[in-house]
Amino acid sequence: MSELLERAQRILDSATGSEQIEVYLSSGVDTEVQAYQGEIEQLSSASSSGVGIRILREGAGGAQVGVAWAGSLSDEAIEDALREARDNVTFATEDEYIAFARPDGVTPALLDLVDPSVTTTPIEEKIAMAIELERMVRTGDPRIRQVDSANYSDYIAEAAIVSTSGIHAMYARSGAYVSVEAIANDGRDDQTGWGLSAGRAPRDLDISVAARDAISRSTRMLGAVKPASMKTTAVFDPRSSAMLFAIIGGALSGEAVVRGRSFFADRIGEVVAGDRFTLLDDPTDPRHFAASVFDGEGLACRRNVLIDAGRLKGFVYDTVSARRAGTSSTGSAVRGGIAGSPSAGCRALQALPGELGQAEILAAVGEGIYVESLMGVHSGVNPISGDFSVGVTGLMIRDGQLAEPVREITVASTLQRMLLDVTHIGNDVEWLPGSAAGQTVAISGIAVSGA
Amino acid sequence: MASSRVDGTLCEMESTLVEADVLQRVLGEAMGRGGEFAEVFVEDRSTASAVLDQRRIEELSSGRDRGAGIRVVVGETTGFAHTADLSEAGLLQAARAAAAVARGGGGGVVEIALNGLDSHRSTARTMPRDVDKARKIDVLRLADDIARSEGGSISQVQVGLGDSTRRFVVANSEGVYASDEQVRTRFNVSCVAVGDGGMQTGYRPLAATLGFEILTDEAVADAARAAARQAITKLDARPAPSGDLPVVLAGGSGGILFHEACGHGLEADAILKQASVYAGKVGQQVASPLVTLVDDGTVVGEWGHLAVDDEGRAGARNVLIEDGVLTDYMWDYLRARKEGRRSSGNGRRQSYQYLPMVRMTNTYLLAGTSDASEIIAQTPRGVYVAQLGGGQVNTATGDFVFGMTSAFMIEDGVITYPLRDCNLIGNGPEVLQRVDAVATDFSMTPGTCGKDGQSVPVGTGQATMRLTGVTIGGAAA
Questions:
Q1: Within 13 Å, how many C-alpha atoms sit on residue B288's CB side?
Q2: Closest-CA residue in chain B for A83?
Q3: How many Å apart are CA A276 and CA B124, to the nearest integer?
Q4: Quick one: which of A323, A377, B72, B208 could link to B35 by a disulfide (CB 3.0–4.6 Å)?
Q5: B261 forms bridges with which residues in the sheet?
Q6: What structural domains does chain B harbor?
Q7: Would you list the domain boundaries of chain A?
Q8: Has this prediction a pTM greater than 0.95?
Q9: Going by CATH, does the domain composed of A3-219 fall within 3.30.2290.10?
């Protein structure tokens, strides 16, 4: 048993009377290198750990819950957190649906999500990657005027969740990334583009891929113009479709559904998307960087199909939202670190790949707009009403080919409409950091607002 | 109540986070390895939050985070390490980790002399720790009741209340030695209204760098009512138009426009990397003569208020654009040092776990002389934006977007029907030139600014104003 799990178990032993306790401990080490003009601009390495405690008390009208956390695993911090949680619990409303997760018999997937070479790789090698990445971009094209930042970062993290209701889970994950942002200039205007490579350890990273992406994305936007407003087909690249999927995933959370905050509520079994569209949340797929053995309540993660060939199939639930909905948890509790309570959410979304590659989709679409980056997603998408309006940069599609660059435009529709209007799903799945993978996706009937 | 608070404060303030002689030894260790500059930032933050949803008090949460961040600068390189271990041994270990960037350093002992402590205290009247949790519950319930009383179409009300008490001490190898106590209180109401056309949302925040005294029954009720009415009004919303139209921004939340359209581009880190459209433009006319833009950390009580910044520099009022002419950028210690000048008090960090960088505080456009209602009356066709949500900017190109969360059509100088949520999109330098009227009704709004993965509280403000043309990203033809 790991040290973290033992520690969590000891805290659990302090439960008094009829109270229930859930203990979440996390611990991690991360390294970050920023290179600029051939030098290290920033180098930071840090370890951090913390505790999140939930106390639950059963009453006549249901259970109450109280929460406290601390950014330290010292005995004093843990004692304080226990005391605060015990005080907080008395103020919550009794609620018949509140409960901690109980073991549900689902076998955890056998996933190896830690590459120990994250910690054994010498820091000099990590620094060299950031500096080389910066150099490759700076010298890769005469139009690159500046490399805003070239970064290497990695982490290794573990978490333990135990509870008096029988939960006993421990999981770990490592990750390594390089990213770079380039500014290109053609003598008139500046354009930016960023590139990325991700893996579980430095040896998985391909800095030339990140460099090439940043160079091509920034240089091909040079000379971008604002086109006239139009209604057309938008082809989203893998990175921007991943953002779309993550937003849609938000509305497929059982939490949003039971709170009456999802436009998908009461629509199970209905056609909500084009028939080529199948969306699933599968943290057991190790290709996904967000893959996980256990969810935020310590239940085994599992593969959940949400939209099946266009038909709404199900939602993701944690324990409490599932109880409210009269169903059981789908192993989909997520928590935002030690300070957050678990809630239902998608962790590792992917759309099943279609048959066509990007070039074939562009050829099939013929005329339209190719979306390369989205801006203002947090301000322009309302996941409750489904209203969608985001800033984009990209390229026009003419005669089935990428044509001139465009900027300072928005694309608008509603998420409901967009899903139904999906016409093509690419086979070019890109595994990206974050909660969703992406691929080329074509959606018709999009309002483009320009000059 | 008031007297117990004074006693409590004295006790708290007497327990220094880390003694001065320890700070000196830690800085000496960091510098002894060849550092040119070293800094220790020790922070202790307590937070509490309470949430009401679906008429239930869902959960109260309390948190405590304590630790230190240490940085060492050598040439162009910054080394950084942080620790939750505030013992001298823990701090020395972090100092050595941060100093690892100074390869081949001497390892000698360097004596650091600190100035007298520049100590500040919160001006909050009712400190969070003195507020009964039951009193917080009352506030949540009041907001819920008021919002629901606005109409049967209100189907969901969520109310959040949070406070934080952040104490920090910062010391550096140049003798800076300062401490501050920042108390912040925030409250927000989110409503969902249901009508024939689906669901619509309303939102109203109330936040200040002050204590619980800001949550008077009247202020709470006003916010709840406003959030509910906004959701109900939007049930009749029609799709927003698309294309270029004149836009009238109501006083308050429109300040986010300046935060995004030029604030980020005036931060010295972007300037020094030539990653801003405003680089090299000091002294030039970059905006309409009606635009005077100020970043001001000294506005007591506003969400971005600070007595000293997270590098120990006093908060300041900095004029960035005066009558349309770019006068200066915002600076933190490191960027100012490169240019041989002083920080403008804009060095901020999310917590001890992060390096400071150039950040805005309270950024606002000074009020003008026009009458707000006349500005609307003199707009034949356009969009009136009553509330803006968040925004985003690409500082290198100046392109920005921001979301309208409450907007209306203006037709023949009269506000007519509500519009569905959508984004506005524009280019900072262009939009600044298009300000053609600024009214007198100045107000400010709290917000959270994210940059390179760090969030800090900021204030934005302006008076009602008009832009001659902005692209509206609506779905209507």
A1: 20
A2: B62
A3: 58
A4: B72
A5: none
A6: 2-234 (3.30.2290.10), 242-473 (no CATH)
A7: 3-219, 230-449
A8: no
A9: yes
